[in-house]
């Protein structure tokens, strides 16, 4: 198993600008999509908690671009766990252009998320759910991130 969670995507015309390359905001959309698919595939119980009172607030998002991609390019968005605290998660993302068996890194991104609970008027920080910690462990970039993911709520 690779050390990342991956979604594949083929770029469409609607994701490009007038010049023909991918409009920058789509890279951020793809981060969100990758995170959502991770929850669906690896931590479905967290999705149920999101229907209750769990909230995942995106605190920070960034992306650094190395090369252009255009319509109909095939892309792999690869997510890893970069850092995990009691209440926050930092993901890293690699955007890899896939062409004829060759992989080219076209961008790198990051996203920091805080776990919160409670009604909208009284939302407070909350521990990262155990199911999510366990699901993230195989995708840790470093031994310290892996240890943090494997820690139990009591540990």
Unreliable runs, pLDDT <50, ≥5 residues? none
What composes the largest sheet? 6 strands, antiparallel
Helical/strand content category: alpha+beta
> How confident overall, as mean pLDDT?
93
Could you state the order of secondary-structure elements as H and E? EHHEEEEEHH
Portion of residues in helices? Answer: 25-40%
Description:
- The chain has 155 residues and is α+β, with helices and mostly antiparallel strands.
- Helix content is 26%, strand content 38%.
- It has helices at 25-42, 44-51, 130-136, 143-150; strands at 5-10, 54-65, 74-84, 88-99, 102-117, 124-125.
- Strands 1, 2, 3, 4, 5 and 6 form a six-stranded antiparallel beta sheet that branches.
- α1 crosses α2.
- The longest helix is centred in the first third of the chain and has 18 residues, at 25-42.
- The protein is globular.
- The relative contact order is 0.21.
TL;DR?
The chain has 155 residues and is α+β, with helices and mostly antiparallel strands. The chain has four helices and six strands; from the N terminus they run E-H-H-E-E-E-E-E-H-H.
């Amino acid at each position: 198993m690779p050390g990342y969670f991956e979604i594949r995507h083929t770029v469409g015309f609607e994701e490009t600008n007038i010049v023909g390359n991918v409009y920058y905001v789509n890279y951020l959309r793809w981060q969100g999509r990758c995170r959502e698919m991770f929850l669906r595939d690896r931590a479905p119980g967290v999705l149920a908690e999101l229907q209750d009172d769990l909230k995942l607030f995106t605190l920070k998002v960034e992306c650094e671009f190395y090369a252009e991609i255009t319509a109909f390019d095939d892309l792999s968005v690869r997510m890893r766990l970069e850092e995990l605290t009691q209440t926050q998660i930092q993901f890293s993302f690699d955007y890899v252009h896939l062409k004829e068996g060759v992989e080219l890194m076209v961008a790198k991104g990051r996203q920091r998320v805080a776990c919160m609970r409670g009604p909208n008027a009284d939302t407070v920080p909350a521990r990262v759910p155990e199911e999510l910690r366990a699901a993230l462990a195989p995708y840790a970039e470093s031994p310290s991130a892996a240890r943090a993911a494997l820690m139990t709520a009591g540990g």
